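call fold(seq) -> tokens
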Amino acid sequence: MTHRPSGEPLKPVRPHPDTDAVHDGPAPADVDPAVLTALLGRHGWQRRGGAAGRYGRWTPPGPGTGTSLLVPASRAFPDSEDLLAEALLALSRTGTPSAREILLALAVPSDEIHWWRDIPAAPGGATAWTTEEQLRSAARRTLLAAALAARARTGFHGARHRRAAAAELDTVLAGPAPDGRRLTVFAPVTTGRPLAVRLHHALHATREAIDYRRATGGMDAFDTAVTAGVSHELTEALAALVRGTEGARIAVAWSPAAGVPAGCAASAEPVEFSPGDLPVLLEAGLRYRHAEPSVTVRITGAVVRMHRSGPRGEGTVRLRVLAGAEVGQVRITLGEEDYRVAGHAHLVGLPVRVRGRLESRGGFRRLTGVQEVAPVQVDEAERDRLMKALQANAETAAFFGEACGPDCGE
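ret:
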């Protein structure tokens, strides 16, 4: 890599021998020097000098790495693209862990979400092999809670919106967590910013509600925190993150390329949680779950399982929800006549429409007080699609009777 003394005049633009080399990251022409500089500073790189207003020399955190980057201050100078090409190539070749995260953030403009867990050291400084799994699990639950809150503000989501929220996580990119103590994920601005914004607000609201509970003994702040995205799912995720540690932290750092979203703080200071917060988090989670009311819905769904203990009487039916509620499947107990209607609808490839109350106690997976069970007419193409989907499901091989078992709706 080329190092230029600060007093030397700028040289004419020249082709660099490594310009066409393959490296992980974006093309130099797509990199904004200001964004690269901001990312270097965020990840602990130190500016060690350079010509003021022209370029800076950056070295990674830690001693003796032997890596040094020259990053132009802007594209106003003839050799700025050459310097960017050299810097990107050096980042791709260095063993510094943060280099990969910087390259990823340059390639896909993303908001960064960081988790830290302070875990007691095992004998010899070793780490239990399960700690990374625990960190990743807690982080995913945190992100899922934020994705749910981005779709609806409620104290308990249960099964509602879960499929759509889980699908939003498909675009989130994760870095390594080799020691189970630190994890960084990248939420692309184009698809993941609503999730990052909601998580930012919800974390701060949770911290404030915990502090209020400790100061006053009241849980009222958790009620108002629902509007910021706090929920049973989030408090449970934070409890999982903190459990077994000496403390945990989460920070949301905004993409330098996209800027700070409206209504959010520019600072990426982490929100801290301690083992002493666990009782309050668990209490809040139970409060949210018990306070969420059941809702009256009219659901259209395809029958996927049926069971009753004898040839007559009531039975249990499971529906794959097609419309009427943001849940994947619901379990219904039907009287003899309604059970017969549901069975006939399945045999001819028709969905049914039912009215009832979606019970929060079962995570919004159970419908009670069912009325108005009736087949729904669909065109031939839709009927064929439904029949093929059900036939492809191996669970429908033994559809009726005791082969399904009493727990078929779970």
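The radius of gyration is 28 Å.
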